[in-house]
Amino acid sequence: MAEIATAQSPVDVTDESLAAAACSGDRRAFDTLVGRYRDTAFAYALTHLHNREEAEDVTQEAFVRALMALNRFRIQASWAAWLMRIVRNLCRDALRRRRVRASVTLDDRWMDSAPTPDIEALFSERRAELASAVEAMPEKFRTPLLMHYGSRRTNKEIALALGIPESTVIGRIAGALRFLRKRMVDLP
Amino acid sequence: MKIACLRCKRALAEYAATDRVIPTVGALAGHLAKCGECARERDWFQAAHRDLKSSLTAEQAAAGFTDSTWARFSASTRPHRSYIPVLALSSAACAAVIAAAILVRNPRTPPLVPTPDSTASAATKPAPDNDIRPFDGKANPGKPTSGVGLTTSQSEQKSSLVPGLIRHHRVRHTDHKRILAYRKPIEAGATLVSTSRPHFPETQTISWDQMASWYEYQGDYRSAAAAYIQAAREDPTDSRVFNAGRASECAGDVAQAIEYYARFLKHEREQESHFKQQEAPPRKGAWQWNENRDTT
């Protein structure tokens, strides 16, 4: 299995082969596999947990669990979808442990900490309004919006992370934009 | 709001969501050119799209994320030291010690094995009816290996007595209480069940009455009757004869019960007549010893 992972180009190798090779100790396969889904999984965890350290911990734990329990994985299913399901479950567990969701303002984590002066001058007032509108957004709209605009994830990756079809992701992002439009009526 | 405007707003949101450029030709472009409200919506969506892209920036995973994940994964796959063998061995050792302590404290009687000598002797010399012998702690010269044997040649049930240590539920707090253990014979076809030498040679002498009482207590009325009969043969007191009849009756041997009851009654009548003879005045003309005869 390790030969399969290393002989071919990493793009050609399936996730399942890479996972099996990583389980047998192939570091290259492990790096390739983590590199494929690290950002998506981390973006989802950060969107939900609003805490960088906790999001990293959850993402790492999800990778370890998905690789450790590879023998329970069904071949017909997608390993990436399985990994994302583990991420979602871990995030839910973390939120349940926390009970009360951390009230981190959007400015602290999602807004650009060092914008250019002209943008700062132009949008300073509107950024605050945008942040409050995103905060007030329902969860099903906010997660794909933040993953799309904040983490720069594609709709396909968001669909994988959320476990929903890509068309649903597009619809939710569009719904999030319409929600923002209703809230920010003063925009030109 | 017109339906065309609703469709236009939906399309504008979807163009923004998919990062596509709004086309300049086609039905949508024609509607935007005519409808000023939808044109303002288009400007708003383009501005919001630009604002969101420029202002929303998410933190990325740390640079050493992959290395730390690999270290975590390696630590998880490292074989842990299992304590199960140690626990199993210690549990087995404890169980063995407890079992040894129980065995030392409460030794079992040796198994009942019919010896060929005793079987042969029984075959050549048939035992009399209800021939049982109490064990007195001394070696029997005729049968050196036998301890106590009980043979009921006419009865179907064979049983044996084994003097030794058994625990009784009433005397469980009394250690080393020596009582007779009743055992079923091992081989169903054996005519004589002989036991080995008693486990404790210092076993005290047991009388037939005690043995019969023990049998009766155990519910073995046939053996109890045999023991009472043997006791009555040695010393035919009234109580022994009566007990022999009673035990035979309980065992279901009616003929034997009647026989011993008859003996008991007969003996009683004899005793009564004897007492009457002693108490009755001498008949007239009967010869009597008179010490003063010579003098008279």
Summarize this structure as a short list of keywords or feature phrases.
heterodimer, A: 188 residues, mainly alpha, 10 helices, 0% strand, elongated, disordered N terminus, B: 296 residues, two-stranded antiparallel sheet, two-stranded antiparallel ribbon, 4 strands, rod-shaped
Q: How does this structure look, described?
A:
- The complex is a heterodimer of chains A (188) and B (296).
- Chain A is mainly α and 188 residues long.
- Chain B is rod-shaped.
- With 296 residues, chain B is mainly alpha-helical.
- Helix content of chain B is 51%, strand content 5%.
Overview in brief:
Chain A is mainly α and 188 residues long. In chain A, 72% of the residues lie in helices and 0% in strands. Chain A has helices at 2-7, 15-23, 27-49, 52-68, 79-98, 106-109, 117-135, 139-150, 155-162, 166-183.
What is the radius of gyration of chain B?
Answer: 53 Å
**Model regions low in confidence, pLDDT < 50 over at least 5 residues of chain B:** 110-166, 171-202
Largest interface: A-B, 54 and 36 residues
Oligomer class: heterodimer
**Structural class designation of chain B:** mainly alpha
Shape of chain A: elongated
What is the mean pLDDT of chain A? 78
End-to-end separation of chain B in angstroms reads 170 Å
Query: Which structural class do the helices and strands of chain A define?
Result: mainly alpha
Measured by DSSP, the beta-strand proportion of chain B falls in: 5-15%
| Residues in helices of chain A, as a percent range | over 70%
| Number of strand elements of chain A | 0
Strand order of the largest sheet of chain B: 1-2
